[in-house]
Amino acid sequence: MRQLTFVAVLIALSGCGSGELSLKLVPAGFDDPFSNLARIIVTAQDVSFQTVATFNADNAAGDVDLGELAAGDSRLVIAGVDAADQVLSRGTTRQLALGSSTSGEELVPFSSLRVASALPTTRALSGTPAIDGLLDEWKASPSIVLDAQSRVSGPETTAADVRAEVFFAWAANELRFAIAVLDDCITLKAGESINSCAAAAAPDRVTIGFDGADDGGTFGSGDFFLELTAGGATRLAGNIDPSQFQISFGVLAGRRGWAVEGLISLGALGRGALQASDRIGFDVSIIDEDPEQPEPTVLRFSTLPGGAATVTPVDSMSTLGFGQP
Questions:
Q1: Taking phi first (over 0 means left), then psi (-120 to 50 degrees means alpha), and beta for anything else, what does residue 237 get?
Q2: 114-325 topology per CATH
Q3: Span 1-113: which CATH code?
Q4: What is the pLDDT of residues 264-322, one digit of tens each?
Q5: pTM for the full model?
Q6: Residue 52: closest CA among 87, 93, 86, 98
């Protein structure tokens, strides 16, 4: 399985010269993420997830010029598309401080859409991790992006309406996750919104389910499902002791969205200590209610038909295998 490396030339608006950043797209799952790709599309987004630059690259190594990209924190979202512009693979960098002094190499987990990468907590999380809904410790972690291309039902949407990022990290005995939902109108519960907008009849919410054995079988031991609302309500299905997981909610800076952060004991998933070749099945959806629409917009990180997506534990950011056997 091959890798793809190219160099982005960064030019700060200050005119102080250019920096270079080498992006190495590393396979992050068991499928070949470069299969059938016609080209790569890279989108630079600022800390508010607004697009500041977009460029294309052939499916080969080469120099790519971002043009006059202002210095500042940004993520790069890399999507691989086929000849019909259908997204087949995706990867997201950590938050980068781009500018004229930027240099070095970034390893970017890159996978087909049904596979996500869970980095070790020692690599994915900064500072002292806490389940507090703030998500500040996740800035160094790649994420799964759910946007208009992830819509499975309901009205069409844009990044200005609703968009989400999902993070995973793992340690010897636990699996952590965080979900940041950017939403222009947050409904906490029926009839109550957090922004200056009309409230929907039902709360905005996320659902996340786990298949501990990754067997795709009947709901049973090691499997459970959480429904989490923007107002902090939690509904649980599955045979799990509440002491085996923690959940916390928060509001994103500037009241531009909401967040949920969680920790699950691997014992609750029927798993012992994870290894880089292990898998845990999961499914996550964002349900965005809108008072002006008859049904919610649903974004989903999915899956092959009839099966859950897969979280692949990654052994180390310095390991190029990224979960491959």
A1: beta
A2: Immunoglobulin-like (2.60.40)
A3: 2.60.40
A4: 998 888 888 877 667 787 888 899 988 888 888 988 875 433 445 566 554 332 222 22
A5: 0.69
A6: 98
